[in-house]
Design goal:
Layout lengths: L1 H25 L6 H4 L23 H9 L11 E9 L8 E8 L7 E9 L4 E9 L9 E5 L8 E7 L5 E8 L16 E9 L2 E5 L5 H4 L9 E7 L9 E9 L4 E10 L6 H7 L3 H8 L1 E6 L5 E10 L4 E6 L2 E12 L3 E8 L6 E8 L4 E8 L13 E5 L18 E5 L2 E5 L4 E6 L2 E12 L2 E8 L7 E7 L10 E10 L2 E4 L5 E6 L2
Antiparallel strand pairs: 1-2, 2-3, 3-4, 5-6, 6-7, 7-8, 9-10, 10-11, 11-12, 13-14, 13-20, 14-15, 15-16, 16-17, 17-18, 18-19, 19-20, 21-22, 21-29, 22-23, 23-24, 24-25, 25-26, 26-27, 27-28, 27-29
Length: 506
């Protein structure tokens, strides 16, 4: 009897243990505070299109940086949509704070607002402490930055952008000194006070001046920066004539006031052609397509610094200081004098650059670049200035006639290549197969072959210099191909052995 009881107890204990283990696995742990706590760091979830290719995320760090750039420490209200965020240790202190630009979809005009998010030590949480409307309305053009405009170490926030009339705008708010901040009013005064708001069919620039060592050491104040707005001179019949209006900070009124207006004569270009170029976004994009060399302050052309615009391929190339930077052309808006272009670096997608392009003459353009979310405006930007359109090479020779596409088989060290008349090619080398698009073309007096591979990402787009007789109506028996690259200096050969193609039968 005793043995029977022991067996029953053993079975019962085994069943209870098994049931307990199953409960621990299936049911949530009652002492897991992770499921019970409230996350104090509120996040704004923004819908996004699903990525079709995981390779588009270049790195985890870049992805997190991109996510953080759209993160607000305090959730927005119903109808409010985040535009951009600027985070930093504003006014010093160990705690990060934020300026958030947003718009309200419930409003008809949907202007851009800016709000300040500060940390409350008493409640140990973030709060929206101030909000105000700006002059901008186009979300894709907004830039946020902070700067000491006054020269007294006070915090100023600058919101640049464009409005529905395609005007450039700049709104500046200054943080009210401690003890002087009144209750916030409907006009936005309170913790911050509006000290400047400009809108113009041109460009707006902060003119920075050198400040003394006393200011740099924090022992005194410095000179206030002025703001210049460049717009059309409506008193002139020349479209390219401009007026520069200067605004200076008035310590008595506490705002920027107009202090100077100067006429700037533009190029005496043919006005009909100027109107055609400035008549639409597409016309101006066609005008700027190609290579533009930087013009130094001394008026000399610097071929070591240039910008290449390619609206058709949505690409912008910056070259300077032996560094080549490639940006994707993401968006453009026509302005009174040219184009406002938004771009994004193809390698570091968190690096964004906006470009104001203005027509100076039928051969020159003026460029102002803003970079990295922060509104970098001033005289120190290395890309700002005038550019001259690159002229065609001298002594251009007439090129013999050539067909872009042929129908022929060639034998080569790369394998057998079949050029089809529809512009595609197939290359077979043992078990390796490659296909894509091709085209024979002339770059001035030199014949080139472009191979654009579709299934071999390591090769991609290749350019070859073609050497051989180009006789119209006859298939060439031998071709010599040398790898080259196209640049500002024309065709440059690479240090690679030439490839010989011999005409073959199928």
């Amino acid at each position: 009897m005793t043995r029977k009881v022991v067996r029953i107890l053993t079975v019962l204990i085994f069943v209870l243990c098994a049931g307990g283990i199953a409960a621990l696995i299936i049911l949530p742990s009652p002492w897991d505070t992770k499921n019970n706590r409230t996350d104090q760091r509120a996040r704004v979830v923004i819908p996004r299109a699903l990525r079709s290719n995981a390779d588009e995320i270049d790195s985890l760090a870049e992805y997190l940086a991109r996510e953080d750039s759209l993160y607000s420490k305090v959730p927005l209200e119903d109808g409010e949509v985040l535009v951009t965020v600027l985070s930093g240790l504003f006014d010093g202190g160990p705690v990060e704070k934020q300026f958030v630009a947003y718009r309200n979809l419930l409003e008809v005009d949907s202007p851009i607002y800016v709000t300040y998010i500060d940390y409350n030590e008493a409640s140990r949480s973030y709060e929206r402490t101030w909000s105000a409307q700006t002059a901008a309305t186009r979300p894709g053009t907004i830039s946020l930055s902070t700067q000491d405009l006054i020269g007294d170490k006070s915090l100023c926030v600058l919101i640049g952008g464009m409005n529905a009339r395609d005007q450039h705008t700049l709104t500046v708010f200054r943080k009210t000194p401690i003890g002087q901040a009144p209750a916030q009013s409907a006009t936005g005064d309170g913790l911050f006070r509006k000290i400047a708001e400009l809108s113009i069919e041109g460009t707006i620039t902060v003119k920075e001046t050198e400040r003394s060592a006393v200011y740099q050491s924090g022992q005194g104040t410095g000179a206030s920066f002025t703001i210049s707005a460049f717009g059309r001179d409506y008193g002139s019949s020349n479209i390219l004539d401009q007026v520069e209006v200067t605004y200076t900070y008035n310590g008595s009124s506490g705002v920027y006031e107009q202090t100077r207006s100067v006429r700037i004569p533009g190029s005496q270009a043919e006005q009909r052609r100027v109107r055609e170029i400035l008549g639409s976004r597409r016309a101006f994009e066609e005008f700027i397509t190609g290579l533009w060399y930087f013009i130094t302050p001394q008026g000399k052309v610097d071929k070591n610094q240039y910008i290449y615009f390619s609206p058709s391929s949505q690409e912008i190339i910056f070259y300077g200081d032996d560094i080549l930077q490639v940006f994707n052309w993401t968006n453009s808006i026509a302005t009174r004098y040219g184009l406002y272009v938004a771009s994004q670096n193809i390698s570091v997608t968190t690096l964004k650059r906006t470009i104001d392009i203005e027509l100076e003459s039928l051969e020159n353009i003026r460029i102002r670049v803003q970079e990295d979310v922060r509104l970098k405006i001033g005289v120190n930007n290395t890309w700002d200035g005038s550019y001259l359109k690159a002229p065609p090479p001298e002594n251009r020779k007439a090129s013999p006639p050539i067909n872009a596409h042929i129908d022929a088989w060639y034998e080569s060290p790369m394998g057998k290549i079949h050029f089809l008349s529809n512009g595609s090619y197939e290359q077979t080398n043992g078990s390796n197969f490659r296909q894509g698009k091709y085209a024979f073309f002339y770059f001035f007096d030199q014949e080139l072959l472009e191979l654009d591979s579709e299934n071999n990402s390591s090769s991609g787009r290749e350019i070859y210099l073609v050497e051989g007789d180009a006789t119209e109506g006859q298939m060439r028996k031998n071709l010599s191909l040398s790898r080259v690259r196209l640049g500002s200096n024309g065709v440059e050969k690479l240090n690679e052995r030439a490839i010989t193609l011999i005409l073959a039968s199928e």
